[in-house]
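Section 3.1: Structural characterization of target chains.
Under the original work plan, the team committed to producing a structural model for every single-chain target entering the pipeline before any wet-lab resources were allocated. The record below documents one such target. The sequence was received from the expression subgroup and is listed exactly as submitted; it comprises 121 residues.
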Amino acid sequence: NPAFFIIQQEVADNYRNRVNNQLGLVTHIYADVEVLFDIKAGNFKPRPNVDASLIKFRPNQKYSNVNREELEKLITRSFKQPRKTLNNNLKQYNYKVPKEFVRKRPHELSLDMYVSILETN
C-alpha cells in the first residue's frame, strides 16, 4: 500500500530530480517515490516559511533479493564524509571497492552500483 506525505519542497525536489544523496538512495531501496504536486506556503495556517510537496511512496520489490540492511549500511558508511572518495570512506570497514569505483565520491554512484559493491563483498 502506498503512503503519502507532505514534505518541504526542497527535499521533494531531490526525489523529483533523482539526486544521489544518502536519503534518496536509501529510500529507493524500499520504495518508488513520486512527487504528486507542490503546495504553496500560503495554503497553510499558520503559514510556514517554505513551500511543500505531496509525495507518494510506493513499496517496491526491486531490491528484495539483496540484503537491504547491509545495503543501507554500505550507503550510510559511504556518505560519512561525502567529499572523500568511496575507497577512503569504506576502507576502515574492510569493503573491497571495485577498481572502477575507487576514485568516485559517494554521490557519483547509482543504487545499482552500490548493489554491485555489496555483491563483491
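The CA atoms of residues 41 and 51 lie 5 Å apart.
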